[in-house]
Amino acid sequence: MKAEELLKAIGDIDEDLIAEADRPESASVLSIEEHRKTRKKRWGKALAGTVAAAAAVMILLPNLSVSVAHAWEKLPVLSTIVKVVVWRDYQREEGRYEANVSEPQVKVEPEEGADDMVKEQLQQSADQINASVQELTDRIIAEFESGLAQDTDLQGADSIHVGHEVVTDNDRYFSMKVWVLEVMGSGYEQDHYYTIDRSTGKILTLADLFTDDSYIETISEEIKRQMAEQMAADENVYYWLNDPDIPEWNFKQIPEDQNFYISNDGTLVICFNEGDVAPMYMGCVTFEMPKTIWQAK
User: Fold this and answer.
1) 20 to 30 A from 160, CA-CA: which of 4, 7, 35, 182?
2) Cβ-based burial of 78 (10 A; exposed 0-12, middle 13-18, buried ≥19)
3) Separation of alpha carbons 289 and 255, rounded Å
């Protein structure tokens, strides 16, 4: 198919196909006309006749709404290039209650000629990540709706936002961050990271990167070193480290299920949510591990 024909086909997606796609009733979905207007505004004349622009449309358009993501999967070949789609888009606003929850799902395909066991493991990993993200968003939405139902006079306030970001996507690793921000007077953010090793198809844990559990002490001591260094360099930076007034809060060591990701350049990054190792004003904090501790092979 020529680029022009592909672009015309994209612009003429049958509305019956969109309506046919299953989607949660709670999702907020743009109309086809709104999608077309958005697409035209975003790409304009750059769409005309270039294969590169056509490829960009194929990657970005499925992320615009739930129904288009479903319908897109019905078209051939595209499922092999879309890595993350928005599966559910829950939006609600009443009084000072506001929810904007964008639930992603991972679509992972192995390279051509990959081992059958890797293909199977990749699908299992994608299913496991999607189930984890769905459980997370289900719980957040249920808690929001419960609070709203109990506040019949709408005297309270709650604002929740859930989104995602692909932080690593290279030949070896795929890492996605799902972030949760809740504002009730003050904001509170949590980040959840999911990393797949493309060579095996498995979801990585921190322990998978090391030969024994000595990494816990090694990484913990490096984090303490960086904490002390940052506090010495900037009086506005503060971590719970060797504080005699709150010894129970002081950072001691990372847990076995420590949050982390591997950056595109192969750096191991250790991640903490708000309030884990520092006061809330510090936000979510991260520590990059030197290559002497771990380096991508």
Assistant:
1) 35
2) middle
3) 16
Q: In this predicted model, what pLDDT tens digit does every residue of 207-222 receive, in sequence order?
A: 999 999 999 999 999 9
Q: Please identify which residue in the block is written with the tokens 């929810």.
A: 99
215 inside domain = yes
Q: What is the DSSP string of 97-113?
A: EEEEEEEEEE---PPTT
Q: Which residue has the tokens 């289900």?
A: 138
Same domain, 90 and 174: yes
Q: Is the pTM of this model over 0.85?
A: no
Residue span of the structural domain in which 270 resides? 207-288
Secondary-structure breakdown of the chain: helix, strand, coil percentages, each rounded to the nearest 5:
40, 25, 35
Q: How far apart are CA 58 and CA 24, in angstroms?
A: 23
Query: Does residue 138 sit in the same domain as residue 14?
Result: yes
pLDDT of 176 above 90: yes
CB contact set of 196 (below 8 Å; sequence gap of 6+): 106, 108, 122, 125, 126, 129, 173, 174, 175, 202, 203, 204
Q: Alpha-carbon distance 83 to 108, whole Å?
A: 6
Report the distance separating Cα 222 and Cα 147, nearest Å: 41
Judge if 239 and 278 occupy the same domain.
yes
